[in-house]
Amino acid sequence: MDKCRINIAVIEPSAIIYEGLSNILLQEGCSHYNIYHFDNIEEISCEIPTGKIDLVIANPALIKGNIKTFNSQKRTGNSVPWVALIYSFFEKEIVDLFDTVIQITDSPEAITRTIHNLISLKCQCKTESREQLTPRETDVLKHLVQGMSNKEIADQLNISIHTVVSHRKNIVQKTGIKSQSGLTIYAISNNIINIEDYQE
What is the annotated signal peptide range for this record (predicted)? Predict the structure, then answer.
């Protein structure tokens, strides 16, 4: 395994969940992650035997009806850790098949710490402690993840468009996240919004 290049497979059908998780790992973690998206467990069968994948993060819902394939994949890449990405209820028997669990509501720091621990990587990169959003920036973020425009947010919060733009710049600077999907995951992870309101 290349010490400075870690290949992570994310098996997750939801594009918004995948993009948000990727943003968290790339922004909060070190920049040596390559993250690949797969829609189902069968798609990585060609990658694990060749040693291309160092860690797998998977939605347990995709495993539930496919345990035989899951166990086969785990045996094939017996040193590759599997992480369950949990954002709804799953039976303990399914979750116990994984090496560990990350919850969608975990903080970005907790998620990256779990990944770092699993791959036993002595990361030389410094994870910068990020500033907290102000209450007004949090208000703007809530409206951003709803897909509202600057003008709509300005009207809703009774502030100028210029102020909204300024808050948006601060949000990007403080979170390090630019995409709406990434900001949505950030908002969920930090309990700013409820995931139930934004599920597809």
Answer: none
